[in-house]
Amino acid sequence: MATTKPPAAVPAPGAGDELAGLDALSVVRRETESLPSRLRRKALPPLVAIVVALGVWELVVLLELKPAYAVPPPSEVWHTLTEQWAEGNVQAAVTNSLRRGVVGFLASVVIGTVIGMIVARVRPIRTAIKPILTGLQIMPSVAWVPAAIIWFGLSDATYYAVVLLGAVPSIAIGLISGVDQVPPLFHRVGRVLGARRLSAVRHVLLPAAFPGYLAGLKQGWAFSWRSLMAAELIAISPELGLGLGGYLDIGRELNDMSWVLSGIFLILVVGIAVELIVFAPLERRMLRNRGLLVESR
Amino acid sequence: MAATNLSPARQTGDRPETTTDTGFAVRIDKVSKRFDRRTDTPPVLDEMSLDVAPGEFVALLGASGCGKSTLLNLVAGLEPVTSGRIEVPGGPAALMFQEPALFPWLTAGRNVELALRLRGVPRADRRAETQRLLELVRLGQSYQTRIHELSGGMRQRVALARALAQNAPVLLMDEPFGALDAITRDLLHDELTRIWSETALSIVFVTHNVREAVRLGQRVVLMSSRPGRVVQEWAVDIPQPRRIEAPDVAHLAGVITEDLREEIRRHGHH
Lengths: 297, 270
Hints:
Largest sheet of chain B: 6 strands, mixed
Radius of gyration of chain A: 27 Å
Oligomer: heterodimer
Shape of chain A: flat
């Protein structure tokens, strides 16, 4: 390109000022909020909701609407939890389940992404496989547990098989719908800018498809976690490490409702924690960068 | 009417010439384009021919549906011609659309930088070159700005900087200011004229706005609709910078509008 020459021929006096003025008028300001104010706005409402829920629970117990063995008070559930923590059962169950869930999910991400990419881009394969993927996504993957037990026996492989069958279709379909939603104009821009096959995938297709892909990942994790709990509840063996499903099952055998409730509580907390620590920040960052975040005030 | 020489605004001896000495920056030679194979319908473009000189600013004017956008896509190599030849001796042309089509996952600066990267500019040079291009469109402060925080006019200037980052000798513009308000559009006309005069760019600017065509072009080319071909052209000898509301601009626009209307009326008779 030519080096700039003095713009003698086209002075356009003040044009820059007008443009600068127009820019200043139309720029959207980024609003910043102090940490205490954000905490009050974001964290306080859910905390209040939890306190209210605990209050209702306590009330049900105090009014003796149900016998105490069926609805033990929150304090008793807490007691069981601390007791099992001291025994090391809580830590073992949480780490075993998380390990299976995370390893299974990560494997699903790799497999689901490859399958999704192929199905999204190769038309004959798409026609052949997309309906099957959709069917698998709708099917509860617990249905695979008996088959997995016959194939793999009572081993970790059984859990992983069920997790994979639960998560892979969601991740693949998320990626496919992400790819489908990429505006055709972006592909043309990529071509004009000189992006060829691989660079077009890397710089245009994948980032443009990311919102749909992330939705697929979120759903994939949810399905992984659910399927794993179901599998752990059904396929129990002393040789396998105790998972949260197994923890739940012990409570049922002992007919100990506070044990069962403490298990449900742990499963819930792990689910919320993964959402808050992994997916929520990813999603918020993606939405904020693209100007899609609507802050409700 | 014959093609013009360079207008007074461009008679500068120190302007570097384009690397080619073929005498044209774009040659469209008897190009036809049809999208369906049926031969009983008129083609979108029918044996259209047009030469664009190096450094020339051509405004391509026509009613909607006359194949202006199709023509730009053909020149940009996004679609194949049905018959005829298109030559762009300086390599692939840059193309700007009516929508800025910036990538929302990148900041303004990163959008420009991506074009440099895809062109193979080494990493060490990219940041400075991006800054230079942003300053050229008067957005030197906006490297870190997210796309959604920019106004429509600012987005289109980032898109212009991105197109310039391709370092192509030819810039194709497909109604790039069509979606902007009148004040912004006026200012961007000034900016585009300034940038064009500072560089060796050849520009083909497609529009359906007659005054915009006269405001910008050294040559205004009127296209017919279905089939698309060149009907008439005018040399615009009004010195730059022109004002869109200036009497001589309005006068020529009036003359051209008559022909455009005549061209549109022709279709009403079928």
